[in-house]
Amino acid sequence: MDEKFIILGIGLILAGFCILFIGSLMNMSNNNEGNNTGKDSGNFKGGGVIMLGPIPIGFGTDKWMMIISIILSIVLMVVAFLFFKFFRF
Predict the structure, then answer these.
(1) 67, 45 contact by CB (below 8 A)
(2) Full 3-state SS string of the chain
(3) Cα separation of 47 and 61, whole Å?
(4) Strand partners for 4
(5) Euclidean distance between CA atoms 89 and 87, whole angstroms
(6) What mean pLDDT do residues 25-30 have?
(7) How far apart are CA 60 and CA 29, in angstroms?
(8) Phi, psi at residue 67, to the nearest 5°?
(9) pLDDT digits (tens, 9 = 90+) for 33-45
(10) Residue 57 phi/psi, 5° resolution?
(11) What is d(CA 63, CA 67) in angstroms, rounded to the nearest whole number?
């Protein structure tokens, strides 16, 4: 049973790397085709959360992205709590 989780974890990590690589290639091809003016559009928005124990520290390019990041981190904490409550190893 433990080997299945190890294989699943490695597979998810590799899938994440593949998604990042493909997304980067798609972004580069879109920028090269549609942006001939040389100006940067500046439409990028992003955010993230760093968890220090139970304390979330949110950051983002604007307030809305920070709120979304914190909400997603709370949802992830609830899912992890439920997972470990119902699936004890």
Answers:
(1) no
(2) CHHHHHHHHHHHHHHHHHHHHHHHHHHHHHHHHHCCCCCCCCCCCCEEEEEECCEEEEEECCHHHHHHHHHHHHHHHHHHHHHHHHCCC
(3) 6
(4) none
(5) 6
(6) 77
(7) 26
(8) -65, -45
(9) 555 555 556 677 7
(10) -115, 110
(11) 6
* Amino acid at the residue 82: L
Amino acid sitting at position 1: M
CB atoms inside a 10 Å sphere around CB 89: 6
Question: Which residue type does 59 have?
Answer: F
Is 0.85 topped by the overall pTM? no
Q: How buried is 40 (Cβ within 10 angstroms: 0-12 exposed, 13-18 middle, 19+ buried)?
A: exposed
Asked if residue 45 lies in contact with residue 54, where contact means CB atoms within 8 angstroms, the answer is: no
Residue linked to tokens 């559009």? 41
